[in-house]
């Protein structure tokens, strides 16, 4: 990719309408947002954060390869096939090849529409031009992945506050993403200390999380799931999704059902699944169905009610569900709603 493009030629949406009367705005027929992964990754600037060595790169590379081949993302969500740029700025070509060979050993095919780059200048030293060159050469691009954000963010002007610096660094990527209506995914890190709000786990100031359109945090979970993907944003519904990782294939898969089921210990998870399918169950019925000791079931149901995972009416238990929960089946429906018809050579 050429680095000849000067910084001054970064696109500026001067011809885009930015002002309407209220009546004019209501009459505008805006196109639906473009999704890289329906329900998860929408057009604009997305930030994926997680602890070191948790699998963020495997996750982002897997998503990119799936989109480039038109294969289901996370082995579940239908996507539209198209070009993807993956900037693996912490990898060498040899390591990237080894990783892709491991992924391909599971039966997938090499992705001709996936461009892999291991060396990019920072955004303040020519990186903007590199990204624009690729987007101009790939007008049907579906996704741009920057792994990692810190490697490409660029220098901070002297005297700028940390908040302003983080906001400005993210805005450089967002300006391009918005101009081309292409989802961008920045890979980033989390703080060492935990936080009750997953957005507060993202390393940096609120300037970074405020500038992006969506935040995804990959967090190691207790119990059955390898991790939980927390998602929130301007165009995505806030939710948690349980994922499992296959180290042999280097592949993340979306698990069925709410993430809360997979965050529980095994006994709670079995009770939760049974009560979801059979509302109003008694401890005796749950015990008979699951084969778990009745006394254990009674004690666990009581603790789950105290933790607001169940509620009881006349000795029968019901699941306490969030009002806005979205499960895997709903994500699949989202993929059908947001996918556009496949073009020649694309997956049907």
Structural summary, described in words:
With 348 residues, the protein is of the alpha/beta class. It folds into two domains: 7-13 and 31-258 and 325-338, Rossmann fold, CATH 3.40.50; 262-319, Orthogonal Bundle (Arc Repressor Mutant, subunit A), CATH 1.10.10.10. The chain has helices at 22-27, 56-69, 93-104, 123-137, 149-152, 162-180, 206-211, 259-263, 266-277, 283-290, 294-306, 328-338, and strands at 35-37, 41-42, 44-50, 84-88, 114-117, 143-147, 183-189, 214-220, 227-233, 239-246, 251-254, 310-313, 316-319. A hairpin with a 5-residue loop joins strand 9 (227-233) and strand 10 (239-246). Helix 4 (123-137) runs parallel beside helix 6 and helix 10 crosses helix 11 (294-306). The radius of gyration is 22 Å and the shape is globular.
Low-confidence stretches: 1-8, 323-327, 336-348
The topology string of helices and strands comes to HEEEHEHEHEHHEHEEEEHHHHEEH
The number of distinct β-strands equals: 13
Q: Report the portion of residues in β strands.
A: 15-25%
**How many whole angstroms does the radius of gyration measure?**
22 Å
Largest sheet entry: 9 strands, mixed
Query: Given the helix and strand composition, which structural class is it?
Result: alpha/beta
How far do the termini sit from each other? 31 Å
Q: What count of helical segments does DSSP give?
A: 12
Specify the overall morphology: globular
pLDDT average, as an integer? 84
Our count of domains comes out at 2
Protein name: AAA domain-containing protein
Organism: Actinopolymorpha pittospori
Pfam families: AAA_25 (PF13481)
